[in-house]
Amino acid sequence: MLIETLCGREAAQTLALMRAHSPLVHCMTNDVVQGFTANVLLALGASAAMVIDDDEAAQFSTMAGALLINVGTLTHARERAMRAAIGSAVSAGTPWVLDPVAVGALTLRTAFAHDALALRPAAVRGNASEILALAGASSGGRGVDSTDSALAALPAAQALARRYGAVVAVTGEVDYLTDGERVLSVEGGHPVMTRVVGTGCALSAVAAACCALPGDRLTHVGAACAIMARAGEQAARQSRGPGSFVPAFLDALWSLNGEALA
Amino acid sequence: MLIETLCGREAAQTLALMRAHSPLVHCMTNDVVQGFTANVLLALGASAAMVIDDDEAAQFSTMAGALLINVGTLTHARERAMRAAIGSAVSAGTPWVLDPVAVGALTLRTAFAHDALALRPAAVRGNASEILALAGASSGGRGVDSTDSALAALPAAQALARRYGAVVAVTGEVDYLTDGERVLSVEGGHPVMTRVVGTGCALSAVAAACCALPGDRLTHVGAACAIMARAGEQAARQSRGPGSFVPAFLDALWSLNGEALA
Amino acid sequence: MLIETLCGREAAQTLALMRAHSPLVHCMTNDVVQGFTANVLLALGASAAMVIDDDEAAQFSTMAGALLINVGTLTHARERAMRAAIGSAVSAGTPWVLDPVAVGALTLRTAFAHDALALRPAAVRGNASEILALAGASSGGRGVDSTDSALAALPAAQALARRYGAVVAVTGEVDYLTDGERVLSVEGGHPVMTRVVGTGCALSAVAAACCALPGDRLTHVGAACAIMARAGEQAARQSRGPGSFVPAFLDALWSLNGEALA
Fold first, then answer.
1. Single pTM value for the model
2. Are residues A197 and C47, on separate chains, in Cβ contact within 8 Å?
3. What is the tally of structural domains in chain A?
4. What is the band of C148 on the pLDDT scale with cuts at 50, 70, 90?
5. For B51-85, what is each residue's pLDDT tens digit?
6. Which domain holds residue A204?
7. CATH code assigned at C63
């Protein structure tokens, strides 16, 4: 299996497109990370709006450039609204992205995520445990902490990608992405990112923004991983812990340039 | 039409009253901005509490100095609780403020906001698209991003103010406020504020806190705009992007003095 | 009555255990403080997950090291999920902690908190007004702001502790903790902590994490108070207001060592 390394110049092109197009992402995400997710998108030049009533969510997903579905704090009510939004997004041709937080460990979200896959997300972003669980393999995950390495979940990611026509990203110390044919890897980031809530959830939102851009989707989602990793490294150098990391990270996303990515 | 400029000394007087009275604001706001909204109020010396059960919301709005209604993530359940809280606030003489986030673009909130106006808010704070939509004019808004200039929405603001007896604030690069008779303008702020989620929503919360203070309501709501604008300018000078802007902004609100406002 | 002062070396031992065990806390907390609560736990080396569907909450509280129940934005739906989670936690032997935000002032949460006590929390953490209300004494609290001093509520805390077998912490300028027999006091902290939303709620989450650790529960919950107080003092020295306090506080929790606690 050939694993390509994402080229920095490609990530820089995606970032330039992001700032030029300013995609509006309809974020149906968990209750914990909403502010941080919006600020990450805004720092990158994209826009975010959270709309959660069934009818409004269905309306809004046709106006947005992309729809993010994150099941972190799923409820039956939220699930109904997400189904309405996805249905409407699919009809309108709006790409949608699935973040299967803790799928495998908990029942409501696992059943929903499996159903949702049939509605063909543009991309899926999860850790190894989540991707293994989505693909039907067993997993020992406990919530958002993956207990499997990303590489171990790559075959599951490839199977999912082929079955549902999605870009599947398994993120961890090294991120692996596949559209079922090609495989990309993205290195980088910093361990302190695991001590800040929402970095993975925000990456999924950035991936959704990237799916709204014209061009190759696998490269764009890989660019989302690279953008977050580079900004994370910069922020880690300029901060003294997970607290000062957050403002430094948003500043780094804001000022990130092609040189830093290349 | 005469447009007065809000005098810095008046804004300073409002700020002094805020710190002396420490109004408690019952914030029924959207899920994205709750923490930031509370921190803005706390930094200014006010207090905030979010209470959302129907019965408790009705109880609490009689104990609070003001009630904020922000429809950003409206649901049918939240709408019921908001109606209960507004009804109770009106009976108790508690002033309430409406932030009509994305009204015009989405159906549930648009119908609710129109209904709610009949319950006579003390103030309404929105961008141009939202104020135009509330007044029944058409708008091309997409969520929280206004596509119309604030000045263009001033006639709509005046019509709303007269019809419902409210102070109406249309905010944008320049903010315009009216009680139907007088018109105030407030300049300032900084573009980075549009890259941080919740600055507009938090302004509405500060406007609500101001409506709890004794004195002229139009001046007080104008002071809310001026306080946020001055703190935003100070924070922009002391930060390197939207990430470091947030702590700098809260610090600036905390240490803002009459001199800086004048 | 003998009031012991918590020894710094004991707090340091609790902190070392926290980092070694990395307890996973199932946080069912209010909508306002979720991100901050998670970041506080992560900075201390613990983990956090918010799971709120009835069935999933019942599943997850058996996987977690501890369960936090905070009634700040209680609704009937959330109450059902909390009852399911507590029931499941009790069956599994997972310790759970009650934060009775604004109990006494508002009806739904007051009734629920009284019911919940019968399910024997490992610990209860509240301000004086809340602890007095829980114990059936009258109180003039207005939401999260306590109008009574912590010491005045100590007899109520002792009565609660004896009746329900819980550690009860009354926090204020000085914190008092009791298991019904012994009484500990913890001094410190900084007034700016009252100008940042969620410091009390996050303390309850840290107390929950501490209840997952092996050893004396009264000492551990006292250590939670001491850890937050010491980090708060450090952060206050390194910040210029409530905005810069937040990142400095999380950094201080991250880098806190036994020397600083002793």
1. 0.96
2. no
3. 1
4. low
5. 999 999 999 999 999 999 999 999 999 999 999 99
6. 4-254
7. 3.40.1190.20
